[in-house]
Amino acid sequence: MKKDLNTAILDPYKNIITIAPRLEVVCYEAVVGILPEDRTMSMPDKLTLHRISIKIATGGVVDFSIEELSLIKERIGKVWSSLVVGAAYDILDADYKSESEIIQQAVVADISESLPIV
To answer: How far out from the chain centre does Cα 66 lie?
Structure first.
């Protein structure tokens, strides 16, 4: 599932949350942060987190598996405040749309609005 990690994390007033300005920061910090249960985590699980952190660090639009997104969301929920968790989950749960898809939808909507109702 493609996600744009450059997406801004906004509070309910549409202001950028300064401690977590982009989805990339939220995801990366959640994956590389040390949680109490990480002390007993298996080596394969640690390597999975490492591989995910490398994908996140590339930035931009990243294609994650469902399992990777689930793990990222689980860790975000444990690391960040409810404000950041809610904003990040809204982005992660939404379908990714490329810039061309957004433009195409805007053009179609603009054309539809200008057509007379019969």
So the answer is: 13
Beta bridge partners of 10: 16
- Residues with Cβ within 8 Å of 61's Cβ and at least 6 positions away in sequence, in order, are 2, 3, 4, 5, 96, 98
- Biggest CA–CA distance in the chain, Å, is 67
- Residue among 79, 72, 83 nearest 16 (CA): 83
Beta carbons within 8 Å of 19's beta carbon, 6+ residues apart: 84
Summarised one tens digit per residue, pLDDT across range 98-108 is: 555 555 555 54
pTM over 0.70: yes
Q: How many Å apart are CA 45 and CA 22, to the nearest integer?
A: 25
